[in-house]
Amino acid sequence: MGQRLDIDALQTLCAIEDFGGITRASEYLTLSQSAVSHKIKRLETGLDCSLLTRRPGAPLLTQDGAQLVGFARRILSLHDEALLSLSKRPLAGKIKLGMTEDTTSSDLSRILGRFVRLHPNVSVRTQVRQSLELEESLEIGEIDLAVMQLFTHRLQGSDVHLYDDRLCWVKARDAELDFNQPLPFLAYDAQCFYKQWAMDAVQNAGVSLETVLECASSAGIVSGVQAGLGVALLPGQHVTSEMEVLSERLPSPPGVTFAVRQGRKSRSKPVAALAEEISRASRDIGKSW
């Protein structure tokens, strides 16, 4: 077999999918658009198939392109792991990581475990807080890296996008609501940006809320809603079949994004390596991590 898959070209193809096209991929890779296009054209010529549709309104990748991206991510992961394992200059240092409760029950623990095995000289200290607290801790340098939620419109250019979710107003299916009275509201604590947005937004909709439960745990909010204690704002991943999503009388919530953000003063190689590991793993396993 004479064909060979070029590692740089595979990285380029993955970047095109990750960033939604050649323009943004070229910015991320610090290459010209013509250089990115040339790498993909060489791949297509070598494999004798089309990888990009190149048609307005069509999916970005062809069926062959999507199939190759799946192989490419596995190849790149093994390639990077081999380089790291055989490196003569292993990473060393300390990382202060912050994350929200929602991400602690995800595959993040597995990702951290793999990172620590690959880099035994890097110490990772983790703390769980609300997103607003993590933002403040990043700003003042208390932590180096955060895996957190934020409204999608607040995503920064340097953030690593993981996945999107939707916020939903929910109640128990058999719960009755009287919109002429303040609605009983189940909320995360005062540092929750859901709550801050909700309290401001309902005023413009002619609705009032009365907080009847504050709980930092998503499990506690879910249990309270299912028990019929009131309404809540929950990410779509926590909405259960026992809940009813409210689409009328209440303002539509903004979209929510899960992202990795580095502190402005935290640009060490270990921090950058962990951010890249989380980003790569999230692309490989998708939203349900």
From TrEMBL:
SUPFAM superfamilies found in the cross-reference section? Periplasmic binding protein-like II, Winged helix' DNA-binding domain
Q: Which Pfam families match?
A: HTH_1 (PF00126), LysR_substrate (PF03466)
Q: Which Gene3D superfamilies match?
A: Periplasmic binding protein-like II, Winged helix-like DNA-binding domain superfamily/Winged helix DNA-binding domain
Annotated GO molecular function terms are: DNA binding; DNA-binding transcription factor activity
Q: Give the residue spans that cross the bilayer.
A: none
| Alphabetized PROSITE patterns for the sequence | HTH_LYSR (PS50931)
HTH lysR-type domain residues are 5-62
The protein's UniProt keywords, in alphabetical order, are: DNA-binding, Transcription, Transcription regulation
Superkingdom of this protein's organism: Bacteria
Q: Which family does it belong to?
A: Belongs to the LysR transcriptional regulatory family.
- UniProt cross-references to PANTHER family, sorted A to Z: HTH-TYPE TRANSCRIPTIONAL REGULATOR LRHA-RELATED, TRANSCRIPTIONAL REGULATOR
What is the name of the protein in this document?
A: DNA-binding transcriptional regulator, LysR family
Q: What is the lineage of its organism?
A: Bacteria, Pseudomonadati, Pseudomonadota, Alphaproteobacteria, Rhodobacterales
